[in-house]
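Page header: ASSEMBLY MODEL / two components / 226 residues total.
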Amino acid sequence: GDSVTQMEGPVTLSEEAFLTINCTYTATGYPSLFWYVQYPGEGLQLLLKATKADDKGSNKGFEATYRKETTSFHLEKGSVQVSDSAVYFCALHSGGSNYKLTFGKGTLLTVNP
Amino acid sequence: NAGVTQTPKFRILKIGQSMTLQCAQDMNHNYMYWYRQDPGMGLKLIYYSVGAGITDKGEVPNGYNVSRSTTEDFPLRLELAAPSQTSVYFCASSYSSSTGELFFGEGSRLTVL
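Prediction written out in full:
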């Protein structure tokens, strides 16, 4: 079945540091890939997505590239801010009439001033 | 801009009690979902609905029931609450089943003692 594995946290960085959160997946067919973000006390929000191989999703300075050859979708940001402190979830959707979105376990990021 | 609204935000139940978590969306989305989030475990799908009058089980439906009498509302009922149902519950909606782009409520934290 489908599965998502993302790096375990927590991750603690200083402001302006470079961020990478690793995500790899197992899926049949050609899934779409997502990063969702959950700020403290809030629900999840879609951060970025990619729907096919070699696509790059980007938003708010975050980027992730859909790598079919390594089944990966790593999240990166060149310079993190305190306001980026949140839990980040990698997810996949197998497409078609499959209603299920498969989530990773989440990675807690804390950015210190 | 209400989006997805969940009530209550917090609730403490005794073992064996029942309650209903309310969820409403104002985006005219056909698809609605209930997830539970346990620490370090990501999100698990409890139930979903593809439109008024149509519901189906997700990964972890035992101990829960849902109904969908209108497009807007998708309540989740817990019968005979158990400590294993202590969790944070998220309602979500989407305009399509095939994109994986979900809109989440802020969550309902339930504790069963």
